[in-house]
Amino acid sequence: MNDTIAAIATGHQATAIGILRLSGPQAIAAVDQVFTPANGVPMSQQPDRMLVYGTLHSSDGLELDHCLATVSHAPHSYTGEDTAELQCHGSPVLLSMALEALFACGVRQARAGEFTQRAFLAGKMDLTRTEAVADLIHAESQAAVYQAAGQLGGALAHIIDHIYDELTGLMAHFHAVLDYPDEDIDPFEAQEIARTLTHTEAQLDKLTATYHRGKALVEGIPCAIVGKPNAGKSTLFNALLGYDRAIVTPIAGTTRDTVEERLNLGGVLLRLIDTAGLRDSDDQVEQLGVKRSREALRRSQLTLVVVDASRPRDAEEEELLSLAAAHGPTILVYNKEDLPSTTPLPAPPAGVETVTLSALTGDGIDQLELAIHRLFPQDPGLRPGTLLTNTRQAHAAAQARDCLARAHQALQAGMAPDAVLTDVEEALTYLGELTGRVVREDITSQIFQRFCVGK
User: Fold this and answer.
1) Of the chain's two ends, which shows fewer C-beta atoms within 10 Å, N or C?
2) d(Cα 74, Cα 174) in Å, to the nearest integer?
């Protein structure tokens, strides 16, 4: 890329520090035009990655700020190009004026994700590391931070590259025997193919199995709060969030639609869904709400069945509890423990966690957090960064695994090695898409759409 880009890297809210980032062949020259170091030495002559104090000027030459600047010459930079940063006070107006001064020097506005895109195109990082940058920016839990940081460090790329190299070695051996029959090369045998296919297919099976966990880590686990009207679902929803997000009234059926928010609870990122009370109703609007509640239950990976602890469970609640438990991880939440009850609480179905709390007072919420943590524990033996975290990665890994499975079937059917290795070659293509060895413009464009401007 021959042009030079710039962007505000710290957003458009007032902050203590605001950063302007530049990359491209004119990045350092542009900073020389708008920034005067206090030591009198232009930034183009300053050492790389050293913070220099000086004065920032507008396009009219007026003082804007006293701030810091730093430069990095290609190829020793994030993007592989000449780069520069201006670290100013964080006034959005100030940053916009500084950006206009840079535009007057021939620099253009960077697109979303363009800095990281340039790093990828320069070979500074593969696609898995690129996606990890976006995951790290949007991480909403400690586990998500560790996963993204590990992936950024190359943990996932290392696994994929190892599989790729094994299959490449198999292909290279076959072609060496085929192309140089007179050379002293070990013969190419079916046992070698079978051994490599078995090993790499098992590795890809293990890798693809991490997708659901990785996706939940990044996007959150869908968690539906269900129950009869006035069981306290919306009160619990608000109590977990810490503010009044859902409307709460004594009138049964107040909630008519699903309300969704993300929440870190018990170290687990949840997509918490408050639902309409499940009951038969002649009200068409309420019927639509109940329908959406059942849809939320079907797509949830964790269900909180809320029951009023001050009265006995009825047949509808028993049916709902059984339905939720059959669907997946379920916690029976006995709410309103602050109210008097004349009936002992019945035991839940086998395998269902039980928590007694008061959503109104907050008593027992900590026990709910512990129950969620028990249902979704962190694997202490899992290396951070080794999970597939998005659909693109999962699809490419699954396609590569399927190609190897077809190759294995062809080998067992007695087909010639060149026919078997056609599927191996296709598997290599999908693995290449995973890391970016094989570049598809539609894939890379979709990836960088996730990024903010300035990254």
Assistant:
1) N
2) 40
Quick one: DSSP state of residue 221?
E
Which is higher by pLDDT, 257 or 354? 354
Reading the block at residue 122, the tokens are: 């320069």
Phi, psi of 424 (to 5 degrees): -65, -40
- For the stretch 9-22, pLDDT in tens is 998 889 999 999 99
CA angle 447, 203, 439 (to 5 degrees): 30
- Tell me the CATH number for domain 224-375: 3.40.50.300
Backbone φ, ψ for residue 78 (5° rounding): -60, -45
What is the residue-averaged pLDDT of the chain?
Answer: 84
Q: Is the pLDDT of residue 430 over 90?
A: yes
CATH of 5-110, picked from 3.30.565.10, 2.40.110.10, 3.30.1360.120, 3.40.50.2300, is 3.30.1360.120
User: Is 155 within 8 Å of 383 (Cβ atoms)?
Assistant: yes
Instruction: Quote the distance between the C-alpha of residue 44 and its chain's center.
Output: 38
pLDDT surpasses 70 at 182: no
Q: Note whether 267 and 142 are within 8 A (CB).
A: yes
Q: How far is CA 392 from CA 158, 171, 208, in A?
A: 18, 26, 12
Q: Check residue 235 and give its pLDDT.
A: 86
